[in-house]
Amino acid sequence: MNANPLLEKFKTPFNTIPFEKIKLEHYKPAIETAINWGKAEIQVIKDNPTIPDFKNTIETLERCGKQLELISNIFFNLNSAETSDAMQELAQDISPVLTAYSDDILLDDVLFKRIKTAYENTDKKILAAEQLMLLEKTYKSFVRNGANLDETSKKTLKEINTKLSKLSLTFGENVLKDSNKFELWITDEVDLAGLPEGVKEAAAMAAKEKGKANAWLFTLDYPSYIPFMMYSDVRESREKLFKAYGSRAFSNNECNNEETVKQVAALRHQRANLLGYTSHAAFVLEERMAEKPEKVYNLLNELLEHAKPVAQQELKEVQQMSNKLGGPATIERWDFSYYSEKLKKEKFSINDEILKPYFQLEKVIDGAFKTANKLYGITFEQRTDIETYHKDVITYEVKDGNGKHLAIFYADFFPRPGKRNGAWMTSFIGQNKYDGVEQRPHVSIVCNFTKPTATKPSLLTFNEVTTLFHEFGHSLHGILADGYYESLSGTSVYWDFVELPSQLLENWCYEKECLDMFARHYQTNELIPIELVQKIKDSANFMSGYQTVRQVGLGKLDLAWHNLKEMPTHSVAEFETNATKETELFSPLKGINVSCSFSHIFQGGYSAGYYSYKWAEVLEADTFEYFLEEGIFNKETAIKFKDAILSKGGSEHPMELYKRFRGQEPSIKPLLRKSGLLKKEKVS
Known about the structure:
Layout: H1 24-47, H2 54-62, H3 66-81, H4 85-106, H5 109-121, H6 129-144, H7 151-181, E1 184-186, H8 197-209, E2 216-218, H9 222-231, H10 235-246, H11 258-274, H12 280-285, H13 293-324, H14 333-348, H15 352-355, H16 361-376, E3 379-383, E4 394-399, E5 405-412, E6 424-429, E7 442-446, H17 462-479, H18 500-506, H19 512-515, H20 530-538, H21 544-562, H22 572-580, H23 599-602, H24 612-630, H25 635-646, H26 654-662, H27 669-674
Parallel strand pairs: 5-7
Antiparallel strand pairs: 1-2, 3-4, 4-5, 6-7
Helix pairs in contact: 1-3, 1-4, 4-7, 5-6, 7-11, 13-14, 13-21, 16-17, 17-18, 18-24, 21-22, 25-26
């Protein structure tokens, strides 16, 4: 093979990744070489004749394996955003190799002895907060990953980890393949009744791309699926689409994930027991703000207590709307979005089709940038000289208020067959300050928004606007990172703290002062009318009880799989029904299952952590009340938030960072108030 671009110094602007030069065949040899480099670096630590201390052991270990980390970031980010069958096959090869390498380090007796000596002999009082966190985190990560186990148990642990790495990939591949398999073709325009023009145009474009004229194609991608469920008058088609979505990786075909789910849950449970924990949840939550499963259950139960009566009332109102319009006497799940959208329009005279003309993608992006500028003084400048992994990806250089380079920002907005559903923020290159040279981060947000058509630009639903701001909030956590150690920088924080910056930024989308910066009609350039802004605010809590119960249900399902005392003997379907019965607002449906496509917990990093969204909402609502008191663009508050939270990453315990910003621990009441779930308090 010729020179491998993954092993060479990148001769690119800001050392950005030369995506156009990287071929699939480069990854495996590059990873093998980088593993050898990493092993050599570890050997240097082990062979060091001097007494182990913080600098020669803990700090040196922190800097090992950086090339491998970079290559892995590139490969696995693309495996989510721009994959192929060949890439997925390669991932099945590469993943166990990386897991084995990680295990070899974490279970190395000689290395652990040095770490333990350094940990026990370091005077913790003389360390800065970030150094102390690195010391604690390094030692704990070895202990929590089996360093104290006997040789037989270590061998078992390695086998479990290898199996889990492969199963996680299999799970994601099955969901993607099964999602891509489904196509709803419509050839009679009558069957498009109720659908907005823009939705029909996008479906016609999708059909044309598949070589069919005079036809409309609907898929399970969010920009296709969600508006169809919301607007289609054809109940049978809604049912068909809903059942296809709800049965992804659960049908009787080669993409079925039932055994994968059971195996992952069983292996995680076995690993937790091996490491001395009662369950995977107990293991995970030890390193979270929540600390233990009981605290998570307490939060979810408190939310459910407030939200369920509200949700039941909301469901009654949707049923009444169905009755009023001559719909089904008992609505099913595939009716809910349709009739709730009708109810929303009646109650607030607002719907996505009224709002979308004011939310052209390019203007919303500009609005997010202006928001960041007003809060933190940073600017985003589009660059055309930086290589990308797909033609849809846009690249920006981020600068601080003095024009100094801060970060590279990639934005990838549209669905395609090689991209998984949903939206996420990720990092290609992290931030650090080693040897007096600052490495600035390269971060990316990946979404699935409606593509432009022949007659219209990409127009976002309001939910997509908040999604963009959410992911952008994550990216600000990365962009504004200002730590010394890369493993503690940016979004490298406790999992139930990581959603605070993202969920917080969503609040700006409801404020006139922010909307006025970007919400302009794509044809007339008219500013969004004040009455529409008021309707957005008035409708903010529409179906908040229903949505809260749904989130609590997903959190409880996650905990059910991961807080087991023993493995379930019944089917995935039965297990799920039992786990979610107290949050179920509809009768269970045969053939519909969440677990088999619950990528957050079986493929992503949210196992025993899905509650994090609600946990972070408590922090976020408390934080935003503070911003509202001071003004949403108050510079002093924004800088205080940046200095206490965004720039600090995981350098200290998140509750300490939060209290430094807010002056107190958070209360659940601001969230209940914000969501309209707090019963009116009696005035004495």
